[in-house]
Amino acid sequence: MENLQQNHNRVSEFVQNSYQKLFSEPELEGIEPQMPKFQLKSFLAQAIDKNYKVTIQINANNTIYETTGLLTKIAKNRFLLATQGQKVTYLLQIEDIRFVKKTY
């Protein structure tokens, strides 16, 4: 009976860890400082005009996420970020963006 309980606990722990890894955001290499709004606007405009692939750190509910993709402007201070590998599209406001950099 004790072995059965131990096996059940191991299986539960394995499933929980696998689930967390599957649905967690990629880990950040380093959290960058919040860019000033004027600088964000300039970098975002340049990335959109020149169709640069960018990496963006996103401020979201006391958590910072980082993702890479192509930007499209949809309205004043609103953007779509389409990722390639994750096949995810983010709807962002300028207030959501912490940092942006060009990636190669």
Short account of what is shown:
The chain has helices at 2-23, 37-49; strands spanning 53-60, 63-75, 78-83, 89-93, 97-102. By secondary structure, the chain is of the alpha+beta class.
Strand content: 35-45%
**How many structural domains?**
1
Question: What is the CATH topology assignment?
Answer: SH3 type barrels
Order of helices and strands: HHEEEEE
**Rounded Rg:** 19 Å
Distance from N terminus to C terminus (CA atoms, Å) equals 56 Å
Protein name: DUF2642 domain-containing protein
Description:
The protein has helices at about 1-25, 35-50; strands spanning about 55-60, 65-75, 80-85, 90-95, 95-100. With about 100 residues, it is α+β, with helices and mostly antiparallel strands. The chain has one domain: Roll (SH3 type barrels), CATH 2.30.30. Strands 4-3-2-1-5 form a five-stranded antiparallel sheet, covered by helices on one side. The longest helix has 22 residues, at about 1-25. The radius of gyration is 19 Å and the shape is elongated. About 10% of the residues are buried.
Give me some keywords for this one.
104 residues, alpha+beta, SH3 type barrels, five-stranded antiparallel β-sheet
Fold topology:
Elements: H1 2-23, H2 37-49, E1 53-60, E2 63-75, E3 78-83, E4 89-93, E5 97-102
Antiparallel strand pairs: 1-2, 1-5, 2-3, 3-4
Protein name: DUF2642 domain-containing protein
Organism: Pediococcus parvulus
